[in-house]
Amino acid sequence: MGKTLFDKVWEQHVVKEISGGINILYVDLHLIHEVTSPQAFSEIEERGLPLFRKEKMIATADHNVPTINQHLEIKDDLSRKQVQKLGENCDKYAIEYYALGNDYQGIVHVIGPELGYTLPGKTIVCGDSHTSTHGAFGAIAFGIGTSQVAQVMASQCLIQTKPKTMRITVDGELKKGVLAKDVILYIIAQLSADGGTGYFIEYAGSAIESLSMEGRMTVCNMSIEMGARGGMIAPDDTTFDYIKGRQFAPSGNELEDAIHHWKELKSDNDAIFDKEYQFDAADIAPMITYGTNPGMGIKIDAKIPMTPDTENSKSFDKALKYMNLKSGESLIGKPINHIFIGSCTNSRIEDLREVAAYVKGKQKAKNVNALIVPGSKQVELQAKKEGLDKIFSAAGFELREPGCSACLAMNEDKIPEGEYCISTSNRNFEGRQGPGARTLLSSPLIAAATAIAGKIIDVRDTL
Amino acid sequence: MKKFNTLISTAIPLPISDIDTDQIIPARYLKSTNREGFGKHLFYDWRFDNNGKQNPDFALNQAKYSGEILVAGKNFGCGSSREHAAWSLTDYGFNVIVSSFFADIFKDNALNNGLLPVQVSEQFLTSFFDRVSKDSSTKIKVDLENQEIEIVGTSEKENFQISAYKKECLMNGYDDIDYLVSLKEEIELYEKNKVLTY
To answer: pLDDT-based confidence at B198, cuts 50/70/90?
Structure first.
């Protein structure tokens, strides 16, 4: 029987099988940030353990950093201490650290790929659920808790039960106005917020292959929003072209040798998955969410569904109450005051280009605060090099400095209570963007169009 | 890690599905650099209003409910990987979480903190929610050794799954990290034989 892409990469990283499908899995790259690492450093210290492979670790500050005046001291006391603690720990253990102000700083899942650390066939972990992003390169990448961060620090390994495999195939050509974000929001709406739990997903099919690396990262990023540990896509020429010339990626003969190996990283024709889904790209429209989990999504011009007749009915009603929305209602025409373009889902240069192309020569509506937070310093610098900053500012959009920002509102970038925000991030949970904030997830294109119109519109009418 | 064997306790019902980690502990309370004290922020935005006043409708605020077991709707712990969610639940005093379905990362985090996630059938959940709404002193018994959970005084009794490895860890108070560190030589050997070295 053939092997899946996941099986191939997994098997290459099994140090030992202990019992009944429980494996000791080796980790090639361990990314850390300020929020989920301090307790792990304390743990190895209390146990008197050294770092096993510090050269396989990369650190950055992203979750908790301000997006204005990053050259100044962080104002919030607790945030400053947490970021300082990361700096102290990285100094102490000599870990490569891209601190605020460094040209390589940024959201951990944006910098890994753009600097060439993220490569096909690697195992990658981070104390953050959106580590699934890196799967876009054909890596096995997943989020872990802080105890596991300490385990990887101490042994470069994790104790893992092998997940089941799922393949989601999307064939056909994506329609005008439909971006990678719409593809994944559509898939999650079909499978629900727990449809992937227990599985590792492979995305395949011509529509997935047609996506850029940025688009593939957007898709893999949200695998966790249906409960899957991760998502991955077989590496191909698009992947190899993206990697070539990246700062810390292999080059020359080493790269040629690596590509030779990477080309074997695809599911065999006779590989069997535990579950398979097939979708037609032509069925996918621009998407928006109306509820408080990412599975509660509809096509932009559809009506909010009726309460389901299942054990979920109470939660469904609770979500609509929180959002102050009703079954049967359309979101088209709804006034919106806040737009957030950013997060590890949609803050890469391609996202900013998409937004710039749409808003060029236009002006945001007066009622709208339009915030763009680049995923990394590199993205910010590239945007400025291309003059996108001037387009944004002429259109009334504010381009900030890099970080996670209003995706999880740990810093001061929050949406006020009761207000709606069209957000390109990944979670619409209650209070995610600030206490009482109401999040509607969408693509960068819908967010840009909403900012210009001051209300939700069907972006396809304006393309 | 502390040991777990058998627990008999009243339980607090949260009949809501898809309870995500941002509800268990909002991101703004993740700024501490140690593991202690997260219990006071557990379910903060459900327990308190904007002025910090208790919400009387929320189960954790109702005097009739107490206990070391939390019973919640399906897909408990979805969302972020923050272990703070598990820390806030244990710090508040919970030792067992019962649901019909758990998110993967939350389950791992719970087990790494001696917090036992017990997956039961929808029917068990419904039957507990019905019963506890009539009698808040309803007790649940969790027996890890025999992998059994029951609503005390009823015929509602089920077996639950846990890996033999994790069961042994919980019953003896072992941590994964001790075991992994003991494998140093095998890990080094693996590294030597690796084809691609990056």
So the answer is: low
Q: Which residue from A20, A36, A430 is facing B45, i.e. has the nearest CB?
A: A430
For chain B, the distance separating the N- and C-terminal CA atoms, rounded to the nearest angstrom, is 34
Whole-number Å distance between alpha carbons of A109 and A62? 10
Window B:34-93, CB contacts with A under 8 Å: 34-35, 45, 50, 73-75, 78-83, 86
User: Which residues in chain A show pLDDT less than 70?
Assistant: none
Q: Are residues A365 and A427 in the same domain?
A: yes
Coil, strand or helix: which one is A60? strand
- A48-96 residue pLDDT tens: 999 999 999 999 999 999 999 999 999 999 999 999 999 999 999 999 9
Query: What domain count does chain A have?
Result: 2
Q: Please check whether residues A258 and A332 belong to one and the same domain.
A: no
Average pLDDT for residues B76-98, to the nearest whole number?
A: 98
- Nearest-neighbour CA in chain B from A451: distance (Å): 27
Query: What burial letters (b/e) apply to A249-273, b meaning 16+ CB within 10 Å?
Result: bbeeeebeebbeebeebbbeeebeb
CATH number at residue A121: 3.30.499.10
pTM score, two decimals? 0.97
- Residue A290 forms part of a structural domain: no
The answer to whether A133 contacts chain B (CB < 8 Å) is no
Considering the domain boundaries, does residue A208 fall inside one?
A: no
Handedness of CA A71, A75, A81, A83 (dihedral sign): negative
Interface of B with A in 169-188 (CB under 8 A): 175-177, 179-181, 183-184, 186-187
What DSSP character marks residue A335? Answer: B
Query: The domain containing residue A400 runs over which residues?
Result: 300-462
pLDDT in tens, B141-193: 999 999 999 999 999 999 999 999 999 999 999 999 999 999 999 999 999 99
Closest CA of chain B from A154, distance in Å: 7
Whether residues A68 and A124 share a domain: the answer is: yes
Backbone angles phi, psi at A134, to 5 degrees: -70, -15
- Which of the residues A151, A248, A313 would you substitute to probe the B interface, choosing the one with the greatest number of B C-beta atoms within 10 Å? A151
CB contacts of A8 in chain B (<8 Å) are none
Verify that A255 and A377 share a domain, yes or no. no
Contact A197 B103 (CB under 8 A): yes
Q: Between chains, do A155 and B175 touch, taking CB under 8 Å as contact?
A: no
| Within-domain flag for A416 | yes
Both A336 and A254 in a single domain?
Answer: no
| Digit-coded pLDDT (tens) for A454-463 | 999 999 999 9
Residue A276 included in any domain: no
